[in-house]
Amino acid sequence: MLLSGGLDSATTLAIAQSDGFDCYVLSFRYGQRHAAELDAARRVAKSLGAAKHVILDIDLREFGGSALTDDIAVPKDRTPDSSIPVTYVPARNTIFLSFALAWAEVLGAQDIFIGVNALDYSGYPDCRPEYIAAFQQLADLATKAGVEGSRLRIHAPLIRMTKAEIIRKGTELGVDFGLTLSCYDPSPAGKPCGHCDACQLRAKGFAEALV
Amino acid sequence: MLLSGGLDSATTLAIAQSDGFDCYVLSFRYGQRHAAELDAARRVAKSLGAAKHVILDIDLREFGGSALTDDIAVPKDRTPDSSIPVTYVPARNTIFLSFALAWAEVLGAQDIFIGVNALDYSGYPDCRPEYIAAFQQLADLATKAGVEGSRLRIHAPLIRMTKAEIIRKGTELGVDFGLTLSCYDPSPAGKPCGHCDACQLRAKGFAEALV
């Protein structure tokens, strides 16, 4: 499963663990602005008892094109609209899921978990249910397991949940959200900015969840 | 476009160039057994006049599971059968195409070329027409461009060609196949072994093409 260190993927890990899966957890050092989210991923993987946590290096700064991987400012106190914001990293989830697919195939795993959600989110194209369905179709054709008849299932348990529902679910499963970091632009010490899209969605979620 | 340094991707590059595309070419240092194929990729990109050549580092040895990325011997003088050989690298083309998709989106490119072929090949699942069609569907949903209505097209011009047809096409377009390297297990100096699947398919192709 893919783990970013944010609250969505932490809750997804807790769901997979409570469903009885042994979780092999994958994070990426992809050229993001800050390493604080990888510290959060390490804390979360350890606290929830992942079987193994791998952090892969892939340098998406070679391509640039996003506020998260290039010298483009992270927008603050933005009013959400229907456009795709500059924090979108081109094809990021496709790259992350491709690596998950590779590792799953080597491990003989038949399940991949990803914490995307399509309600309280930043409007990225690769967080939508139809995107996940297309990756499922690709996975069925891309692998040796698929050719030999077994099916690798992509799970996106949060995809139709609101942020408040995710927070309530995580709380119920014992996730310590104090270990997670959602901010796109934290201080070097890992303090969230409070003003980017991710901070705003997070604050609204806790308020609505009454947590 | 994706370039490995072998004869298929060299011919694909020549086709794209002759069709008038400015080619931004992507290769990977993915933990393969030898760097000789990257030397070949550099020679080919230069000789055919690519606009830009990027070599990305991604360490697939972290997962292992293939004779090309792990301590598993490359089979020699194998009689082809219907099984998927140990030289298959789990999800490799999915990972490569995902990075191509990311770069294409940043460049504003609307075309991705990949030199897979499904006739004289090693039986890998991610070289089949139905796999490429599934990636096309994914690309339409995965990107900002897709959401905004423009369509990124995946081109696999060799997919239904025999190795002999590829060699004849490349020859016609002026590809210097002496610059390419197909071998899965060359000497440190880049001399092909002559006995792996790739060497055998290549030799058979040249014999049939009368080149």
Give an account of the 3D structure.
2 copies of one chain form a homodimer. The radius of gyration of chain A is 16 Å and the shape is globular. Chain A contains 7 helices and 4 strands; from the N terminus they run αβαβαβααβαα. Chain A has helices spanning 7-18, 36-47, 92-107, 129-142, 144-147, 163-172, 197-209; strands spanning 24-29, 52-57, 111-113, 153-155. In chain A, strand 1, helix 2 (36-47) and strand 2 (52-57) form a beta-alpha-beta unit. The two termini of chain A are 26 Å apart. In chain A, the strands form 2 sheets. Chain A has a two-stranded parallel ribbon with strand order 1-2. Helix content of chain A is 38%, strand content 9%. With 211 residues, chain A is mainly α. In chain A, helix 1 (7-18) packs across helix 6 and helix 6 (163-172) crosses helix 7 (197-209). In chain A, 48% of the residues are buried. Chain A has one domain (7-209): Rossmann fold (3-Layer(aba) Sandwich), CATH 3.40.50. The mean pLDDT of chain A is 90. Chains A and B meet through strand 2, helix 3, helix 4 and helix 5 of A and strand 2, helix 3, helix 4 and helix 5 of B.
